Amino acid sequence: xxxxxxxxxxxxxxxxxxxxxxxxxxxxxxxxxxxxxxxxxxxxxxxxxxxxxxxxxxxxxxxxxxxxxxxxxxxxxxxxxxxxxxxxxxxxxxxxxxxxxxxxxxxxxxxxxxxxxxxxxxxxxxxxxxxxxxxxxxxxxxxxxxxxxxxxxxxxxxxxxxxxxxxxxxxxxxxxxxxxxxxxxxxxxxxxxxxxxxxxxxxxxxxxxxxxxxxxxxxxxxxxxxxxxxxxxxxxxxxxxxxxxxxxxxxxxxxxxxxxxxxxxxxxxxxxxxxxxxxxxxxxxxxxxxxxxxxxxxxxxxxxxxxxxxxxxxxxxxxxxxxxxxxxxxxxxxxxxxxxxxxxxxxxxxxxxxxxxxxxxxxxxxxxxxxxxxxxxxxxxxxxxxxxxxxxxxxxxx
Length: 398
Ligand code: SF4
Description:
It is built from 16 helices and 14 strands. By secondary structure, the protein is an alpha/beta fold. Helix 2 links the parallel strand 1 and strand 2. The N terminus is likely disordered.
């Protein structure tokens, strides 16, 4: 597991077997290199305020919708990952971007901002389990298999924003595009058109977003979708299955949205008369199929904001956002779809002590946890991101 080699086929997997060995790369941030303030420090809010004030326009704090309230309070802007990366790029005067989100988001911000700006992730352990389900070595292996099977030249990769910079770069190198949960339909339509008759899309890393977009938004058949399992030879597919499929869905999912169930939807409908179910497209297909509304976090916020008083909702997305919506719209009834779902644990790694530590360090002239994407990786990732921006009619409105 711990051996390293240039060959992707033999490259180490991203996860260690429990109790065996260490991998500082995957365990990044487990040990904080500085003195974190104690969570019980009663002055934390005042310290964050003072540090932010001292830094003034030199710092721009981004807060993803799934962040804790204690962190969102100090965000200059909030939004989904792509909106935040674009917000950061629109502030070239701010030398420091403190990204309260997860690792792949900070990477995207680094790619889209200028070289003179530094992106800081307050806790390096804030990763994303979905992004980690597609390691670059595994994806390179899969591509080799597609080449060997004679289908790579008619396969276009479409990669969800929730992926590492290395996977985005792979997408750029192979003529594909990035997508978000807002524009997946446009991106997939473009990619299928590029692939041509008998062509295929390799959708990374979220199988649910790929399947939901193809079947629900484009009217494709479920039978055209197969799951590529990176842990099995040839993705676990027979040559016939591979040949007949249109959508090659990487076997990845969001550990939060993947837990909402059809039973929870049915229970909500039984218990709350006239309830409307709104879910994120990272949810499983059977959940999305029975929901009243499906959309990105930005769409969920806008839909609820526009609903008349008295509307009853159950919402299938991350709990921090749902709680915030319930507080913001008390004239509506807003409930969480699943009793047993926890918060996104990696998003929650960013807490007030880490934010204070990052900001106070900047005040002292020390940059902690900078996120820097390798130049070559950034160049090709940018190609895939630019392709997304060039999609027909592309406007990332929400
Ligand atoms: S909510 Fe899901 S996709 Fe978003 S950061 Fe958490 S694990 Fe990743």
